[in-house]
Every structure is written in structure tokens, then in C-alpha cells.
Amino acid sequence: ASASIGVTGLGVMGRNLARNFARNGYPVAVHNRTPGRTRALMAEFGHEGTFVAAESAQEFVAALERPRRLMIMVQAGAATDAVIEEFAPLLEPGDMIIDGGNAHFADTRRREAALRGRGLHFVGAGVSGGEEGALNGPAVMPGGSAESYAVLGPMFERISAKVDGEPCAAHIGADGAGHFVKMVHNGIEYADMQLIAEAYDLLRQVGGYAPAEIAEVFRAWNAGRLGSYLIEITAEVLAHTDAATGRPFVDVVADAAGQKGTGRWTVQTALDLASPVTTIAQATFARAASGRTALRAAYADLPGGTTAPLSRTEAARFASQVEHALYASKVIAYDQGWTMIQDAAAEYGWTIDLAAVARIWRGGCIIRASFLDRIRAAYTADPELVGLLAEKEFAAEIADAQVPWRETVASAARRGIPAPAFSAALAHYDTLRAHRLPAALLQGQRDYFGAHTYQRVDRPGAHHTQWAQPGRPETTA
Ligand code: NBP
């Protein structure tokens, strides 16, 4: 037994993670259902570090130092359960199984409970950064017991991305907390992408800018507070010309967006937790709507908004408004994500360091952004911060963005350009800052038809009104 860790499942992700461990000096046992992949890894990359190739499950487990650390990188779902069932009987109390796949956090909670009952640690670890991140430094979000993190933490921190010398890995919380936080990362990623896409659409359709010019606008924004991986790659995509036609690349791509499902999980879970992640939800629905070809064809000639072209000076002014709108909406999207993490922590009994979540997302993952330093600072200064806008610097920025943010959403509405994520973010902001909401009327309606009762502003307790029925006078209980 000589390997510090074993990786089973040597697909794109598993192979690169195994190489990352080996390159960082950890002897790694490698195993795959189809041994061809193990042999290919040894032949191509065996020289990169100390690998122990195992073809059978028994050989693989025998190669691991105790407590054994066995990382599974296979397809999420039934394959993960099958692999757990294959290896768990070969392990001993205190050993650790790490699932680095994109598991649903509820599956991770179920697996953790079952394996805990068998004396094993089960660590659901969110791994972000794709193929490249797995090899050169992912963001790692492990859940599971503190005891397991004491052993695994230094290893994850060593292989993770680093920002300002700090690792993009931290213990998130018990059982499924790591996979939950990874899921919310992907939800925020959907919101970020949709907001950027709406900004592009407005700059093009209202501002009259060409894609290559918008690339320059994004490059300028990338040097400021919006600086992030997604803004950076957006500029690259917009500047790209299709080789076959000479047209802007963005114009030759079919406008129906795909999704693999983790953004959808965020929205589904948010409904269960009553977390209003409306910007993330709109981003998810926007992808779905873009693919509704038949409806889009049937509705394509319905009337829209006005179309008055802007002068170049007006367009430049509009672009700076859109920057404010994008930033303010992004703050709202992240605030929604953090609120959802707080909601889940309360629901599942997790203790989550909200500043650490911001810290580990600064590198290795898709939403990496300079702005996360600010979120980290806000939660470091006040770990109990109720929401980002309760912090004075964020509040000041949002105050500054008021006019341009509202102008941007209003321009979109007047011109008939869809801006569902911008609009949802602004509506969310206006909902939470309102002193009175029409929810009072909803309570009245609910009491009328269903005797659901209501709370009063002036007296405690549940109240019900005997609503006037034909032939019966109104009385208040
Ligand atoms: P790949 O599709 O490249 O590889 C899948 C691996 O799963 C192969 O090693 C395959 O073995 C193994 N496998 C399957 Br499928 N069913 C199995 C079973 N019943 N028993 C044993 N092994 C089985 O996947 P990947 O892209 O490396 O992704 C691995 C995990 O990482 C997934 O959960 C994915 O969601 C997650 N993830 C992916 C990314 C990404 O950017 N790709 C990022 C973050 C997380 P075989 O060789 O014998 O078929």
C-alpha cells in the first residue's frame, strides 16, 4: 500500500485529476472499469509522477494507504451508486470515498448517511473548472465530515487553483453541502452568462454596435469592476469571425441554447426552499424559451416596440448605462445565490463559511471574477450579513446604478428587446426594498376563498374574516 489517493473513473475529468495529484507529488492509484483507459494513462502520462495502475478492484484498494482515500470520477447517478457498491465492501471503517462527479446534493446526502452507517466517510466534492481545471487547478468544494477534511483538505488545497497564493478549496459543510454549493455555482453561472448575453443584445439592437465593437466594449469592462473570466471569453467570442463565411461568428450560430441540468437543479431546489433566485430562474427559462422553435416561428411577426436609432454619442452613453445595469443585476444574482446557500444551511443544518465560498470561486471555476473579493470582504467583516445590499459599499454602488439600471430595463421594454434576467434582477431589488407589498392583498384573497387566515399589522395572532356570502352580512372573527 503506497498510494496517497486512488482515482477510479479515468474519463476526461478523472484522468486529469489523477495527473494533477501525481504532479503535486502524491502517489496515485488509478483504476477504470475498462482497463484500456488505465493503460493509456500510464503510457501517455506515467512519467509525470508516481502512478500505481490497478486492473481489479481488489488490486486498487490494496494499493491505498490507510485510511484509504478513494476518489470516484464516473458519470453521476446510477454509475456512481454502482461504483460505490463495488468498492464499499472492500473498505474498512475510517476509509474515505470521495465523489468528485456532478452528483445531486440529495443523492450525496443519501449516500453519506448510508456509508456513515457502515463506518465509512463519504465526501461529496464539487469540482469546477472542467477538463483544464482538473489538470491545472480546479475549484474544489468538499462536503462530508470535518474529520475527513482534516485528512483530505491539504491534498485538495494543494491541487486546487490558487489566487493570491490562497487555495480555491475549503471544507463547505456536512454531507451534501459541497455538491449543493457547486450546484449554486452553476446556477449563478447561468445568470452571469444570460446577463452578459442580454447586455450584448441591447448594445447591438439599441446601441447599433457591431459584434467586433461590442467585443471592445467588453474588453474595456473587463478591466474594471466587471473583470471576470466570462466577460473575457465573451469578448473573444464576439471578436471571432467565422472562417467559412467571413461573418461574425455569433451570427452563424443557431440561437437555441443547451443545458446539461445543474442550473435547472438550482431552480428546482430553490422552489423547495422558497428561495427567490429569480435571476437564475429567468436565465434557465431563457435557455428553454430559446429552443421553442415552433412557438418562436408562430409568434415571429407579432408587434414589438419602437425602433429609433441612436446617434453614436447616445450609443456611447447607453453603453455606460448598460454597464451599470449589468453590474447591479450581477450583484442581485450573486445575492440570490448566497441567500439560497444560507437557506439550505438552515434547512439541512450546515455551517457554511460564506466568505470562504467567495474565496474559492475566485479561481479554477467558470464564475471566477474580481468582484468575488468584495463578497468575501463583506462576509468576512460580518459573517451574519443578511444580504449583500446590507453592506454599505454594495448599497452605494446600487444607489449609483439606479437611473442607468432602470433606463436600461425601460429601453429594453420600449424597444421590445427581451431582457428577462435584467428585469428579474430589478424587480427582485424593488420587491425587497418595498415598504409595503401587495402580498397583503394576496393574503386577503387567500382568506376569502380558502379561510387561510392572515396576520394583522396591529395585533398578534391568526385572523379570519367571515366574508359576505349571498344573504349573509360580513363579520370579522
Ligand atoms: P467521461 O464521460 O469522460 O468518463 C466517464 C467515466 O465513467 C469513464 O471512466 C467510464 O468508464 C465511467 N463509468 C461509467 Br460512464 N459508467 C460506469 C459504471 N457503471 N461503472 C464504472 N465506471 C463507469 O466523464 P467526465 O467528463 O470525466 O465526468 C466524470 C464526472 O465528473 C461526471 O460526474 C461529470 O458530471 C463530472 N464533471 C465533469 C466536468 C466536465 O467538464 N467534463 C466538470 C466537472 C464535473 P469506462 O471507461 O469503462 O466507460
UniProtKB/TrEMBL annotation:
EC number: 1.1.1.44
Listed SUPFAM superfamilies: 6-phosphogluconate dehydrogenase C-terminal domain-like, NAD(P)-binding Rossmann-fold domains
Enzyme category, top tier: oxidoreductase
Signal peptide coordinates: none
Residues holding substrate: 102, 128-130, 185-186, 190, 260, 287, 446, 452
GO MF, one example: phosphogluconate dehydrogenase (decarboxylating) activity
Active site positions: 182 (proton acceptor), 189 (proton donor)
Residue ranges of every copy of the 6-phosphogluconate dehydrogenase C-terminal domain listed in the record: 178-468
InterPro entries: 6-PGluconate_DH-like_C_sf, 6PGD_dom2, 6PGDH_C, 6PGDH_Gnd/GntZ, 6PGDH_NADP-bd, 6PGdom_BS, NAD(P)-bd_dom_sf, Pgluconate_DH
Keyword entries, A-Z: Gluconate utilization, NADP, Oxidoreductase, Pentose shunt
Amino acids binding NADP(+): 9-14, 32-34, 74-76, 102
GO biological process, any: pentose-phosphate shunt
Pathway assigned to this chain's UniProt record: Carbohydrate degradation; pentose phosphate pathway; D-ribulose 5-phosphate from D-glucose 6-phosphate (oxidative stage): step 3/3
Catalytic reactions of this protein: 6-phospho-D-gluconate + NADP(+) = D-ribulose 5-phosphate + CO2 + NADPH
Family to which this protein belongs: Belongs to the 6-phosphogluconate dehydrogenase family.
Assembly and interaction partners: Homodimer.
Protein task: Catalyzes the oxidative decarboxylation of 6-phosphogluconate to ribulose 5-phosphate and CO(2), with concomitant reduction of NADP to NADPH.
Name of the protein described by the UniProt record: 6-phosphogluconate dehydrogenase, decarboxylating
